[in-house]
Specification:
CATH architecture of the largest domain: Alpha-Beta Barrel
Structural class: mainly beta
Shape: globular
Number of helices: 6
CATH superfamily of the largest domain: Metal-dependent hydrolases
Oligomer: single chain
Radius of gyration: 22 Å
Order of helices and strands: EHEEEEEEEEHEHEEHEEHEEHEEEEEEEE
Helix content: 10-25%
Strand order of the largest sheet: 15-14-13-12-11-10-9-16-17-24-23-20-21
Length: 396
């Protein structure tokens, strides 16, 4: 067994937030177990990851105290596969270190080990009927969510169980964006097929100064690098980068960037929808506005589709959805079944929105009286609000 003990200090964090504890893996090793311990508190949080001589093997942040990596199976969030001989490293992220410092212990054990099995997926759910929203010829409005998590980071559901929940709620697609990893990507097609939903591969590139979703079948993006490198990696792989929950207290976006990401998550499940702050931020920042529930577990976040990001796409496929997002053919609503506004030809159509008001970019206010009301309109952000000023839907 290899053991490290010590104390991290605020000065250690100022010098380098990521620390590496090396250990040697001989040829023929059948498994690797890593455990770490410290006294966690609001100002005392250490993250965990593992790097082998050839690639990044996984990241669990502060979610797990022990992980296993083997040739055939690994703890969710980590990559199973051959265990190359040579120097591996335990990666410790000094996320929060209190003024008095933080004592820690890390243990690495080599030998056969198997992670705990995942639960069987639930039965395939019944889907609500797809909504009939007016769209351009050859296109349809698809309901989705661009931000969610599973057991591969800090969520509680497997990809299949998450897919079933999202399909049951009437979503057509869901981006699975686990933190700083892509170990969930290989299982998404099968999990989506089981649930009857398109599960989009994604990764939430996560640091203590901001989070960004990379949407697409992309290689792992190194969260330790500059944000411009995240954007370059996403674009090189044909994907999209979104700045997440830019105004969210300690999770707000504070990282420098010189280039403009194509998407901005202006509607997060934590948004106070009577506040204009995220929309004011977006007006200054730019990008195509999108929404995300950031679902981890029931009762702590919005459910999948709260909010719903609608895309006007030619078909239900990763390529078509990415193309629609890139082109800005989007709308956002509080949920998949409530009031929504979409663009159609030279107008905005408000569906299921009787008794609301449509606010225009010029300050105009239009009362919506019909189940399916057509409002002539130019470009610019339009917002649907209830009589109390609560935002119900918006469209750029």
């Amino acid at each position: 067994m290899i053991r490290y003990r010590g104390r991290w200090t605020p000065q250690d964090r100022r010098e380098a937030i990521y620390r590496y504890l090396p250990f040697d893996v001989p040829p023929g090793t059948l498994g690797i177990s890593v455990r770490y311990g410290y006294e966690r508190g609001p100002d005392a949080i250490l993250d965990l990851g593992v790097v082998d001589p050839e690639r990044f093997r996984g990241w669990s942040g502060s979610e797990r105290r022990a992980v296993v990596i083997g040739p055939r199976a690994a703890t969710p969030g980590y990559l199973a596969g051959p265990l190359p001989a040579g120097q591996w490293q335990v990666l410790i992220g000094l996320y929060r270190v209190p003024p008095e410092g933080l004592a820690y212990e890390v243990e690495v054990e080599l030998g056969t080990a198997e992670p705990a099995p995942l639960p069987a997926p639930p039965a395939r759910p019944e889907r609500p009927p797809r909504r009939d929203l007016p769209a351009a010829p050859g296109r349809q409005w698809l309901a989705g969510d661009l931000h969610s998590h599973t057991v591969h980071s800090d969520g509680v559901l497997t990809p299949a169980a998450l897919g079933c929940l999202a399909a049951e709620r009437g979503l057509d697609f869901l981006a699975v964006t686990d933190h700083n990893g892509v170990a969930h990507h290989p299982g998404l097609p099968g999990a989506g097929a089981h649930a009857g939903i398109l599960l989009l591969p994604g990764q939430e590139v996560t640091t203590d100064e901001g989070h960004a979703n990379a949407i697409g079948a992309l290689p792992w993006i190194d969260f330790r690098g500059p944000s411009d490198a995240w954007l370059a990696a996403a674009e090189a792989g044909g994907g999209l980068l979104s700045i997440n929950h830019p105004l969210a207290g300690p999770y707000s976006w504070r990282r420098p960037m010189t280039a403009q990401p194509p998407l901005a998550e202006v509607w997060h499940s934590t948004w106070d929808r009577r506040s204009d702050a995220p929309l004011d931020w977006w007006a200054a920042w730019g990008g195509v506005p999108v929404g995300g529930s950031d679902f981890h577990r029931s009762g702590s976040d919005g459910l999948p589709g709260e909010p719903t990001t609608w895309v006007e796409a030619e078909e239900l496929s990763l390529g078509a959805i990415v193309a629609a997002l890139r082109a800005g053919r989007v709308a956002i609503s509080a949920g998949p079944h409530g009031p929504v506004v979409v663009r159609h030809e030279d107008a905005i159509v408000a569906v299921g929105a009787e008794g609301t008001e449509l606010l225009g970019p010029d300050g105009s206010r239009r009362a919506i009286r019909d189940e399916r009301e057509r409002v002539p309109s130019g470009r610019g952000l339009h917002r649907l609000v209830d009589p109390g000023g609560l935002t119900l839907a918006l469209i750029p």
